[in-house]
Amino acid sequence: MKLIFKIAVSGLLTLLTSAPGFAQVKTKEPQKPVTEQRSFDPNKATNPPSGPSFYISPVEGSKGMFSVLLSDNGGKTLAGTFSLQQIEVFEAVLEAAKAFALTDEKVGSGKPITTRLMDQHEWSLFVDVSKIGNQSRFYVSLVTLTGRLTAEAGEITRGSKKEPSALLLTILSQIQQAKASLKPLQ
Fold first, then answer.
1. For the domain that residue 131 is a member of, what is the CATH number?
2. Interatomic CA distance for residues 128 and 40, integer angstroms
């Protein structure tokens, strides 16, 4: 709480001391003639992405740190910054969840059986796998200092010849790509 107060006070002082400088600067730029008019067509407007999603990217200027964003079906999002070691643990948890989902171990017949996969020392990211019949459903959770968010991460059908396309698999791929993009910098 003290840290938040210090940050707020610091930001306010910075704003108050820099505001008079903005008022003193007066520059006039010649106006350019309008050569093209653009109109807004609501029929061609695109909606923002909806549904659960995941984003990861190396933090520029911070070696071995990653920015992660998770969103759920309800439009809630949660962001956090994680170390390379945390991302490697999360990758291992995702791999284990994928492997577990493809087995017939702990499958519910009348009601789904849910199994949580997580590292015992790293609780920031974990996966729940819910199994019933030949279906395995994934739920990915992210925990940061600002909260916790769980998002549906798709499902796979065990024994299907069709290639699985769950969000969990996309998350795993994005993590591997983000880690690979960091390798030349190390």
1. 2.30.31
2. 44
User: If DSSP states are collapsed to H, E and C, what string results for the chain?
Assistant: CHHHHHHHHHHHHHHHHHHHHHHHCCCCCCCCCCCCCCCCCCCCCCCCCCCCEEEEEECCCCCCEEEEEEECCCCCEEEEEEEHHHHHHHHHHHHHHHHHHCCCCCCECCCCEEEEECCCCCCCEEEEEEEECCEEEEEEEEEECCEEEEEEEEEEECCCCCCCCCHHHHHHHHHHHHHHHHHHHC
The tens digit of pLDDT for each residue in 143-169 reads: 999 999 999 999 999 888 887 778 999
Domain interval for residue 57: 53-185
pLDDT digits 0-9 by tens, 15-33: 434 444 444 444 444 554 4
* Domains contained in the chain, number: 1
Instruction: Kindly state whether residue 64 falls inside one of the protein's structural domains.
Output: yes
pLDDT tens string 43-73: 554 455 568 999 999 998 888 999 999 999 9
Q: Is the pLDDT of residue 97 over 60?
A: yes
Whether residue 160 lies inside any domain: the answer is yes
Q: What pTM does this model have?
A: 0.70
Sign of torsion, CA 70 57 147 88?
positive
